């Protein structure tokens, strides 16, 4: 039985209407191509309408045929027209409304870690330190051996390392810049070396395989631990305010003797004890010490004439305290909701 002519005409009309609706929402060339395939390809919606011709009485077929040809042409013309408008404007949106406000160019900002790094640099430059730069790829010699960390020595276990080969590593700390600086220059030396470091750590709230340190080194005649303490205290108070106190605890590093770690009094509870300082009143900041004479041996400095202090601190740690961030990973996720706050 032939289908009702009216029904078929309305199916054709619906298809055409749906097409124009889709087309009006096409914002990109890709959208347009998708619609073209959907409607005009060999198995597309327009072509499949042609099979309806067989379902009407012979007498009505010319009429349906003519209608289908009209729709096909309308669809083709509309697609061509839209394509041209994309080409003309070079843009997806085909109309231009001159009354709309212009598009603002969003301005980026320095990453919070770089802001902290800059502040730390500024404080030390103000105290007469120069800035040295090292490479992120280091020789095993500079990263370990010349820092008095021999191959196969247990002290290497303190730093889980990305080895690139037997000879090269991704530096695990900024301390190798001490060696380069002393190889290249004679005392007196007062330098800091900021930079990125790498360790084979599994990321968690306080560990990241990429992180940043600032190294410090001062070598001259008669440099003592008292100088180290004075510089660290001045740094602490410049960074976190006049009330900050500093304490040194004995520790061990292969390249310093004696070695220490220093803490700042908690900047949140002023030393009373709180969640951040785990009720100790102190925040661990950095390792430091007097340069081990063995290190001077590697760079041909006379340890009988010169002495020096060194320190190395984590930038992330300071940034986390300063901005009250409790998960280090957020610094590396490029999440604009976080970064826009700085
Ligand atoms: N390089 C050490 C580390 O990453 C930190 C350090 C400790 C650096 C003592 C120093 C220092 O210069 O004297 O764990």
What does this protein look like?
This protein has 342 residues and is α+β, with helices and mostly antiparallel strands. The chain folds into two domains: 2-89; 112-339, Bira Bifunctional Protein, Domain 2 (BirA Bifunctional Protein, domain 2), CATH 3.30.930. It has helices at 5-24, 29-40, 45-49, 61-89, 112-126, 140-143, 176-184, 225-240, 293-298, 315-323, 336-339; strands at 130-131, 137-139, 168-170, 189-198, 210-220, 246-253, 256-265, 282-291, 307-314. The strands form two sheets. A seven-stranded mixed β-sheet has the order 1-4-5-9-8-7-6, with helices on both faces. Strand 6 (246-253) and strand 7 (256-265) form a beta hairpin. Helix 5 packs across helix 10. The longest helix is centred in the N-terminal third of the chain and has 29 residues, at 61-89. It is elongated and about 115 Å long. The protein starts with a helix and ends with a helix. The structure holds 3,4-dihydroxyphenylalanine. 3,4-dihydroxyphenylalanine is lined by residues 173, 175, 215, 253, 256, 287-289, 310-312.
